[in-house]
Amino acid sequence: xxxxxxxxxxxxxxxxxxxxxxxxxxxxxxxxxxxxxxxxxxxxxxxxxxxxxxxxxxxxxxxxxxxxxxxxxxxxxxxxxxxxxxxxxxxxxxxxxxxxxxxxxxxxxxxxxxxxxxxxxxxxxxxxxxxxxxxxxxxxxxxxxxxxxxxxxxxxxxxxxxxxxxxxxxxxxxxxxxxxxxxxxxxxxxxxxxxxxxxxxxxx
Length: 204
Hints:
57% helix, single chain, Rossmann fold, alpha/beta
């Protein structure tokens, strides 16, 4: 089984992936942040590095999905292949940071890859307001994220909502994280686990 967690920067995807993998004994697949050779450059000069970064993510996530299906295990994945294509790349394009030529090239490659993979059995979307995202981003203190602007997070949130509103590839669980502290409060984590249990039992 393939479970995936989607959500904006700072919504708690990695933390929830870790906690759920521990609880269910699922194999976690994390986003490749530390090893990503483009992230620092991208945040310093988005226009120059946006295409390279998006291609890197696309390649990395496509390989992840192939590995997940080959493994035959139940895997929980931190971020999906869809988020770059439907949220991050179109946002960079609309901000003038990714040319139409590069965006069209990128998106046709995504469509080809997408036709070759299956969607997750369950998608968990972490919905968070901009103040919650900012607070979480500051807490983890990654240097390259210090320059992220509020309007950038707001635009991403709007695109996430539009994408989730139309998502129809499989089961979807939306979790509002503004009033949850699942990293520190067991009852908040239990609340999410109960919702996941209900969805998973509906899969069989």
